[in-house]
Design brief:
Blueprint (H helix, E strand, L loop, with lengths): L2 H4 L2 H8 L9 H12 L7 H4 L8 H9 L7 H14 L3 E9 L11 E10 L2 E5 L13 E2 L5 E4 L2 E8 L7 E8 L4 E8 L6 H13 L10 E5 L3 E6 L2 E6 L4 E5 L3 H10 L14
Antiparallel strand pairs: 1-2, 1-8, 2-3, 3-4, 5-6, 6-7, 7-8, 9-10, 10-11, 11-12
């Protein structure tokens, strides 16, 4: 049985609240992408417990669709890929180097997963698993030299110089608070396969130097605001760029914030704040 045959498309679409016509076109891609981004939270609770999350379709459905949980990029974009393929779209998995806070793209390994989706209008970059306020809410065309605005966020793809044979692009987001463009991640259009992501997932989810194994990192986006919990720091970013921060006072408050603000049921026995 293939991954798509194991996938419960009805349950997925019900969870994200998308009720559009099921067609293999750009409108469907945009609608499903936005609904997913505004419905399912980003979280790293499995790595905090010392294990890489399963990428098996049945396990993803149990955790993120039927349970009160989220996931990180490999989980989110696997769910999206399976849904888009079930809807008849052709999807290729890509991998990127996160450039947020990096000296150069080459200083980071390729550990972020995204998708290239083919439409009649051309190929699009789709990504519902980048845990940051600059993440895509809508897919963007895979072209450079143009700015794209979608669901209140602005992005562009910029070519970067490097020594490899394939063109290197950086996804950049416009930060309203600073009035500047900020790099998110850099990638080529080289396709990656499931075994590649199993290795990436194991490294990111279990390596002691991975930030995801050290502290909680939760994200949630709504139409009005973006929420983040990084360790004990809780940040709210409004659509106009206004940012407020506060430090949580202890484990009880952290678990309450996870449930009420992020919609995440923290597993019993897991201490968010150590």
């Amino acid at each position: 049985m293939s991954d798509t045959e194991q996938y419960d498309l009805d349950a997925y679409l019900d969870r994200i609240g998308w009720k559009g016509e099921r067609r293999a076109d750009l409108a469907t891609l945009r609608g499903v992408h936005l609904a997913h981004a505004l419905s399912l939270p980003f979280e790293n609770l499995d790595p905090l417990r010392g294990s890489a999350p399963s990428l098996d379709p049945a396990d993803l459905l149990a955790k993120m669709i039927h349970g009160r949980r989220g996931g990180y990029c490999y989980e989110h974009n696997t769910l999206l890929r399976l849904a888009l393929e079930a809807l008849g779209l052709r999807v290729t998995a890509l991998a990127a180097r996160v450039t947020v806070g990096a000296r150069t793209p080459e200083s980071r390994p390729r550990t972020h997963a995204m998708l290239q989706v083919e439409t009649e209008e051309g190929p699009y970059l789709a990504d519902v698993g980048f845990g940051a306020s600059g993440a895509l809410l809508l897919p963007v065309p895979l072209v450079t030299g143009t700015e794209f605005e979608g669901a209140g966020r602005r992005h562009r793809l910029t070519p970067l110089s490097h020594e490899g044979p394939l063109e290197l692009w950086e996804l950049q987001a416009y930060e309203r608070r600073d009035g500047e463009w900020a790099g998110q991640y850099a990638f080529t259009l080289e396709p990656f396969a499931a075994p590649d992501f199993e290795v990436f997932n194991w490294f990111v989810g279990t390596h002691p130097r991975s930030p995801f194994t050290r502290r909680p990192y939760l994200q949630r986006t709504t139409a009005e605001r973006h929420l983040a919990l990084d360790g004990a720091l809780f940040t709210e970013t409004l659509a106009d760029g206004t940012v407020t921060e506060r430090t949580l006072t202890g484990e009880a408050e952290a678990r309450r914030v996870a449930a009420e603000e992020f919609g995440i049921e923290v597993p019993a026995g897991l201490a968010l704040l150590g």
